[in-house]
Amino acid sequence: MIKHVLKAIEAKDLEAAREAYRKAVPVIDSMVNKGILHKNNAARKKSRLNARLKALAQVSA
Fold first, then answer.
1. Quick check: pTM over 0.85?
2. I need a labelling partner for 2 at 20 to 30 A (CA). Which of 21, 25, 49, 61 fits?
3. Residues 13-22 pLDDT 10s
């Protein structure tokens, strides 16, 4: 799911990136609950994806 967000950001498709991010967050959170990711690692991934989304929104605006 993270790769989908990154692909949309690289394609500069803001709406697709936002939708992919919205779908990726619960998947990342479930990975934490299953013990696949540490909670800080998941928080860092979500934060960095969100920062890239905001930067793309600034460029698009």
1. yes
2. 61
3. 999 999 999 9
